[in-house]
Amino acid sequence: TNFIISNPVLVTDGQSLFVSSDFDRRLNVWTEIPDESGAHPDYAYELPEPPWDAALHDGRLALAGGKGVYIWFSLPLQGELPDLIIHDRIGSVEFKRLTGVAMDERYFYLLDGEASRLYVWEGIPDEQTDPLYVITVPAQGSRLFSDGRRLVLTASTNQESPINIY
Hints:
Strands 1-2-3-4 form a 4-stranded antiparallel sheet, with no helix packed on it. Strands 5-6-7-8 form a 4-stranded antiparallel sheet, with no helix packed on it. The radius of gyration is 15 Å and the shape is globular. The chain is mainly beta. The chain is about 0% helix and about 50% strand. A hairpin with a 2-residue loop joins strand 6 and strand 7.
């Protein structure tokens, strides 16, 4: 009732705020960035899979976690449901435990932390599209970010290389 968020992952376009939580299995949306603590979100989504990571690029929002991917082709500022929901697999890739998602002008990235694999597609894939690249990454990779030139992967249990930049 008080919208306390456990394990938050925050993304913003500079005007709106999107906070996902794997623990709560939720996405909270503020159509304007709050200017006080305890502000209730404008929209709250309960998701079947816990969203572990979030990515926002060029008006698109993606969440990934467990065996699910949720994608909005435009920001959900009026309570819209995801435009694309993918469970269990994309093309020949069967998800074990998704822990990272990123996107930029050209690529869409998913990190399967349990499989230690980073999957790269050109554009947002549909359920039938095989990845362009499959990259073996450090064990238990946990989050992704892309600025269009670099891809950053954080690894929660690999103390020798906790941050990898591609």
